[in-house]
Amino acid sequence: MTAFAPDPPILTGRLVIRPFHPGDTARVRSVIKARARFLPPGAPGHPSGVSQWLSHGVHELRRSGQGVHLAMEAEGLVVGAISLFRTLWGAGTTEVGYGVHPLHRGRGYATEALLGVARWVFETTEMRRIELRADLANTASLRVAEKAGFVREGVLRAAELGEDGPLDIVVFGLLRKDLS
């Protein structure tokens, strides 16, 4: 089994994309207190769980070989998160998801991080495909995928349950050759 581990961090024009670490404690606590939604799945719902999550929980996906949760840092501040998950090493596929702090949206960070991570995956692994799924109603996320060069492949009707019921999900794919 292989694991994703960007070392050194992935550098883009404005971002440092790196694993979360204990130095992020104050920022993550403030994000949770403000109820800003952009942290990876499994992030604590209460500030008291932040230290444990940053020490262990956020790294479980990487330790299992199934993916990695990474922080998007701009000017020394965590402004978002991007994750690889549902990785099938034998098939050469992985899925990507991302979120940006509400105060930092609209600045192109998600597209920049998505391109940086995609290039890193194709340069450092044998992955042949990165998949991205987005809620059909989330036009901002759909634009990010398209700007990053992901190809819209179809819509899965009522594929996921959201807070308000079933969601239609757009599936995008990016192949190694798409970035050439």
From TrEMBL:
<dbReference type="InterPro" id="IPR051908">
    <property type="entry name" value="Ribosomal_N-acetyltransferase"/>
</dbReference>
<dbReference type="InterPro" id="IPR000182">
    <property type="entry name" value="GNAT_dom"/>
</dbReference>
<dbReference type="Pfam" id="PF13302">
    <property type="entry name" value="Acetyltransf_3"/>
</dbReference>
<dbReference type="GO" id="GO:0016746">
    <property type="term" value="F:acyltransferase activity"/>
</dbReference>
<dbReference type="InterPro" id="IPR016181">
    <property type="entry name" value="Acyl_CoA_acyltransferase"/>
</dbReference>
<protein>
    <submittedName>
        <fullName>GNAT family N-acetyltransferase</fullName>
        <ecNumber>2.3.-.-</ecNumber>
    </submittedName>
</protein>
<keyword id="KW-0808">Transferase</keyword>
<feature type="domain" description="N-acetyltransferase">
    <location>
        <begin position="15"/>
        <end position="180"/>
    </location>
</feature>
<keyword id="KW-0012">Acyltransferase</keyword>
